[in-house]
Hints:
Layout lengths: L1 E2 L4 E6 L11 E7 L5 E4 L7 E4 L6 E6 L8 E9 L2 E4 L3 E3 L1 E2 L7 E5 L6 H6 L1 E9 L5 E7 L3 E3 L12 E9 H5 L4 E7 L3 E7 L12 E2 L3
Parallel strand pairs: 1-10
Antiparallel strand pairs: 2-6, 3-4, 3-7, 5-6, 7-8, 7-9, 11-12, 12-15, 13-14, 13-16, 16-17, 17-18
Amino acid sequence: RVEVGSSVNLTCDFGDFPRAKCFTVIWFKLRSTSIPTLETYQNVRPGGSLVGNEVKKTCSLNLNNAQVNDSGTYYCAFISSSAIYLGNGSTLVIRERSDDRAYIEILTPSESDGEVQSSGAATLVCLVFGVSEPARVYWVIEHGLTDSGSGDSSESTPDFIRNQITIPGEVWSSGSVCTCVVETESGRNMSKSASKTGKRVINRCIQSKKV
């Protein structure tokens, strides 16, 4: 599994077949759709290349800037006399970049403030969807308060990361802006803010972290 835009190298070794050489190799792709289709990569698609000395037995298919439609099972093959010999096949899955589909939802106390009045505190929950890599999630509250909140792997699923924070009721009632910040291992940042004033989405961005 790789992300869109990655470079992929598929290698085929015909060491057990004395008559096989790289110049005789043909690459096939079987795409898993409702109706299976077979594509020939004898002439590699734009952005790809065949690698290997023509008379050697280890040959490669390189796919640069891989796209979702490059997903499928790839086979190398060569024809000798009336027989065709196929490799075992390698399944390639190209997925959209995680940050392209990532987003944040913030759950806030009910508009009636009943949840705040009964406990004297307000709980906000940050749900992060579409991030497939390790990430740090924390809260920034207006007027300088920063809190890591609470959340661990047991509270999250493969589909989302969960983190919550409890703040004094008067801080929430005053309209202070509460921002959930996500920093991924690869250096991507994104955030979303909420306040009692009703401006739920105050900021959201995804960018590379500056070093």
